[in-house]
């Protein structure tokens, strides 16, 4: 029985109903326009017939794969533009050149890092999910070339110059993220009187984070003192801000007044925390991973350069080749 257009209850949209090659269909067209609904009916009928003959791999569309990916908990943040671009294209029609052209069209001025993050990564995530669903074959996708990111962090002298030019709230915020490694968005999520913040015992708790694991955070005395002196903000939040973008303006003003280079909140928090843990805390990559702040060893490897003392201790122990004696340089 071919598909028919029907109405359902009070909905203005047309619905497809019927059975094609043994597959029962009852779904909305998403439109109240009869002409458009009719064209969707014809296309849907054709898709089902084509799939019954050629199989799912030959007929599955990107839209179908993207919807399945999101319904199974996939991130939808960057998929809108990709769906708009590939919508009813069959997965079998999408190849590397087509993906590259779409990336240039969606983000003509974007750099490699941005295109990788907002286009290639979500596309590949949808594709890999479709592979698991049997809608397409696995394949290796080429990503855009990216410059190796430069890890910038604030030195003790940097903070000594900057903090006197910060108001009470910004100062407390910076000291908090520096000493805990919290992401700015995580820091702003704490409530002043919430159950996940205990100044008396010096700890805070993140129930959800980017690593998808809860994290218990130690609050050093300097952090507790700063937080205890903060006023109660009307919205109940610890720092009063609800969006970390609100930090940018006062931070830039403070950097200008202190005559120091502007570093982003992430660099003054996570990057500085990890760098200081290496340089002054004597911790290695494994130790950083154990804090729960990072998900895998690759994430913390970017801070390996921070601890020059590791190289110094090792190279100072090399044998002295300038003299006949093979004693070590530091054993005189």
TrEMBL record:
InterPro entries: DNA_brk_join_enz, Integrase-like_cat_sf, Integrase_catalytic, Tyrosine_recombinase_XerCD. Residues 149-316 form the Tyr recombinase domain. The keyword Signal does not apply. Pfam families: Phage_integrase (PF00589). GO terms for biological process: DNA integration; DNA recombination. GO terms for molecular function: DNA binding. The keyword DNA-binding applies. Keywords: DNA integration, DNA recombination, DNA-binding. Belongs to the 'phage' integrase family. This is Tyr recombinase domain-containing protein.
């Amino acid at each position: 029985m071919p598909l028919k257009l029907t109405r359902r209850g009070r909905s203005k949209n047309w619905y497809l109903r019927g059975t094609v090659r043994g597959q029962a269909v009852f779904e909305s067209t998403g439109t109240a326009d009869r002409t458009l609904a009719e064209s969707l009916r014809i296309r849907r009928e054709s898709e089902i017939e084509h799939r019954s003959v050629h199989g799912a791999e030959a007929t599955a569309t990107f839209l179908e794969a993207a919807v399945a990916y999101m319904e199974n908990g996939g991130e939808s943040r960057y998929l809108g533009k990709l769906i708009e671009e590939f919508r009813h294209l069959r997965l079998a029609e999408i190849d590397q050149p087509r993906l590259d052209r779409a990336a240039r069209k969606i983000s003509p001025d974007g750099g490699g890092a941005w295109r990788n993050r907002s286009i290639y990564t979500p596309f590949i995530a949808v594709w890999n999910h479709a592979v698991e669903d049997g809608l397409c074959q696995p394949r290796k996708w080429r990503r855009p070339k990216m410059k190796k990111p430069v890890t910038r962090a604030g030195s003790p002298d940097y903070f000594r110059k900057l903090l006197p030019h910060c108001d009470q709230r910004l100062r407390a915020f910076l000291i908090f993220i520096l000493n805990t490694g919290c992401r700015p968005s995580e820091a702003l999520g704490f409530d002043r009187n919430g159950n996940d913040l205990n100044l008396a015992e010096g700890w805070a708790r993140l129930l959800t984070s980017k690593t998808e694991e809860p994290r218990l955070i130690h609050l050093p005395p300097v952090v507790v003192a700063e937080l205890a002196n903060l006023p109660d903000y009307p919205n109940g939040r610890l720092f009063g801000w609800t969006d970390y973008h609100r930090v940018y303006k006062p931070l830039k003003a403070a950097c200008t007044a202190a005559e120091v280079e502007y570093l982003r909140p992430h660099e003054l928090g996570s990057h500085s925390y990890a760098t200081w843990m290496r340089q002054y805390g004597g911790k290695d990559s494994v130790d950083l991973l154990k804090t729960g702040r990072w998900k895998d060893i690759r994430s913390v490897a970017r801070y390996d350069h921070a601890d020059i003392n590791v190289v110094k201790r090792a190279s100072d122990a090399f044998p002295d080749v300038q003299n006949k004696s093979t004693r070590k340089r530091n054993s005189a």
